[in-house]
Amino acid sequence: MEPTNHSGSSLLAVEVGEINTRAVLFDVVEGRYRFLAIGTARTTANAPFNHIGEGVLRAISDLEQITDRELIGDDEQLIIPSRLDGSGIDLFAATISAGPPLQVIAVGLLEDISLASAKRLSTTIYTQVVDTLGLNDRKLPEERLDTILRLRPDLIVMAGGTENGASNAVIRLLESVGLACSLMPKEQRPEVLFVGNQALNPEVETRLSSLTNYYFAPNVRPSLENEQITPAQHRMVEIYRSIRALRMPGVSDLNEWAGMRLLPTSSAFGRMIQFLSKVYDPGKGVLGVDVGASATTIAAAFDGELQLGVYPEYGLGQGISGLLENSHISEIQRWIPMEISPDYIQDYIYNKQIYPASLPVSAEDLAIEQALARQAIRKALSAAQGGFSKKIGRSGSGMLPWFEPIVATGSVLNKAPSVGHSLLTLLDAVQPTSITTLVLDQHNLAAPLGAAAEINPYLSVQVLESSAFLSLATVITPIAKVRPGTPILRLKVTYASGDETSLDIKQGTLEALPIPMGEAARLRLQPLHRSDVGMGGPGRGGSVRVVGGILGVVIDARGRPTLLPKDSTRRQDLYKKWLWTLGG
User: Fold this and answer.
1) What is the largest CA-CA distance in the chain?
2) For residues 365 and 199, what is the distance between their CA atoms, to the nearest angstrom?
3) 8 A C-beta contact, residue 468 and residue 13
4) Theoretical Cys-Cys bridge with 263: which of 12, 268, 376, 449, CB 3.0 to 4.6 Å?
5) Where are the alpha helices (DSSP H) in 73-130?
6) 187, exposed or middle or buried, with CB in 10 Å at 0-12, 13-18, 19+?
7) Burial annotation 92-103 (CB, 10 A radius, 16+ → b, else e)
């Protein structure tokens, strides 16, 4: 099969996930690109197949049955380009998140400067930073050598030195890396990515050229005050693709099908969020949340500038025990609206680690699953928030920047019993501020569209404008430092019909306005007790046009951060009330 080109209308996108492989078909309908159908199969990266190709073919076969359209020929190759009889497709794109995270050692000079940048770069794909090496870690050269030999990382990300800055200290660290590589069997030597002082590139090449594969990318810390991660991310994607192709059968074939453009699913997801930030209000960012089996991904983009964080330790599949290791059991238990013992929660987590494809079979299991999603998103957001733009408005110190919209996806959200469950999970986990729209990517299309954007950007734009994404609600969050029950916002609603209604919102409550989906209304917001609704500061209100989602317009006055009652009975009663408010 020839690599994909830029002509033609139909596009097939394949996503190889940790549990499921999806095949998504897009084509032109009545002059515009549309999402047509999706085929699904279990991912076959592990035994008994140990080859992702089988899962890919099964997902495409499922799609063929749904659409009654032949996509794979007798030779088990894609039919490309499409034929006059309607079979085949014109373009192909693919992403992958399956497989264990790459083991990475981050190397730098100062812990809070170049080493911190190396760690942030590492988290832009599916990696686990297993250790760090720096000048101020007080390790002797032989201890650094032992660390690399003991951990046997897949990749060493090495930063250090501003442009035309430090060199001798970086070379000393490089010596440890080179010596460790020379002592390892050739097939176990790590790849090395150098993102430090570019004047040292010849030195890196001299010391590593005969030992292992090495790569260069622009300095992530060209000056002490300036961090630039984005240029090096492209090289990280290339390295990820290379390692996956070497170690996971079938990846090379899929990459060839994709015209050598196979992307990590997280990178494709981030690309879509980055695109949205160029379309929406530049005064706010766009936030993407993908809570998956392999990792929880946070993508935040500010006027085209992307901050991407991928956290396998907060995935809900085989790595779910990492959530327990990084959280106290009470932090998970607080989100459960019923009495469940800590032992039962732990047992559920360990069982999920062994059987990541298992589904909740009782109300208790469902409550635990959604509580785990809340905690995973909160932990991932906390880890990512330090890199968010400081130029975007906030409603207070430690709170999220203002976002519009917030796009979320993941099976735990898409397969929830009701959209009310999905929205409440997101409100509890993300805790947005200001006025924003929460959008559910119910078919997991953001990553496929991000992968397709490079070869057909019009497709991505037109599918986004269709009904493929579900607007849950416009959410207004008044924030005030007052006692529960105190009125903090006076609302006047003018519906499209001309009817009007007024109400007061009290601190600690969650309210829903029945504004039909897609229908616009005018809200007059009058903050009380100097509450902040994101309209210029505490006490400032005004008029705003909103559009109802499937759950209308929601006012979340529960506070930021949302403080839950310590009494379990009262907390459970509140959850039931909140869920009832959202129709769950």
Assistant:
1) 78
2) 56
3) no
4) 268
5) 114-122
6) exposed
7) bbbbbbbbbbbb
Give start and end residues of each alpha helix (H) in 315-362: 321-325, 329-333, 342-354
Q: What percentage of the chain exceeds 90 in pLDDT?
A: 80
Give the Cα separation of 272 and 495 in Å (integer): 33
* The predicted structure's pLDDT at residue 399: 86
pLDDT (tens digit, 9 = 90+) per residue, 8-21? 689 999 999 999 99
Mind listing the pLDDT tens digit for each residue in 347-390?
Answer: 999 999 999 999 899 999 999 999 999 999 999 999 998 888 88
Instruction: Average the pLDDT over 506-530 and give the result.
Output: 95
CA distances from 11 to 38, 267, 469 (A): 12, 19, 18
Amino acid at position 338, single letter: M
Cβ(195)–Cβ(158) below 8 Å = yes
Cis peptide before 81 (omega within 30 of 0): yes
H or E segment at 13? strand 11-16
Are the CB atoms for 173 and 139 separated by under 8 Å? no
d(CA 53, CA 21): 10
CB-based contact 38:21 (threshold 8 Å)? no
